[in-house]
Write a structure and sequence with these properties.
This protein is an all-alpha fold and about 130 residues long. It has one domain. About 70% of the residues lie in helices and about 0% in strands. The chain is built from 3 helices and no strands. Helix 2 packs antiparallel against helix 3. It is flat and about 80 Å long. The N and C termini lie far apart (about 75 Å).
């Protein structure tokens, strides 16, 4: 046991004392992609985010609707599986209605406020 402890101690002293010798300074230069431009217009960013969120929510509801349809088809007449599929389809339709209402609210508020939430232009600070 003493020999094993001595060997482990000697090996660990060797490895820990030799570590600075093996260390090298490595410089990695990562240049940004050429097709990505910096964000200079906050209004465009906000309107793009609104549009992306609405599109993603619509696609998610559509795929949820498809999932419910496939679940109904493969249920094989099982009453609980059919009910689960019907609830999934109902939830997808309600989700689509909510997404459409959100889009309509944005459009109506934009008309009342005189802005286009899907193409925002925010005023820039004076002197820039």
């Amino acid at each position: 046991m003493k020999k094993i402890t001595a060997a482990i101690t000697a090996l660990s002293i060797y490895l820990f004392s030799a570590a600075p010798i093996w260390a090298q300074e490595i410089t990695i230069i990562i240049s940004p992609p050429s097709n990505i431009r910096p964000i200079t217009n906050l209004g465009k960013l906000i309107s793009s985010l609104i549009s992306v969120i609405l599109v993603v929510a619509t696609l998610a509801a559509f795929f949820y609707l498809l999932w419910g349809g496939v679940q109904w088809i493969i249920s094989g007449g099982d009453k609980t599986a059919v009910e689960g599929a019907q609830h999934r389809i109902q939830a997808a339709i309600v989700g689509l209605i909510i997404v459409f209402c959100a889009w309509a609210i944005f459009a109506v508020l934009g008309q009342f406020l005189g802005i286009n939430p899907f193409n925002l232009t925010l005023p820039s600070p004076a002197g820039t």
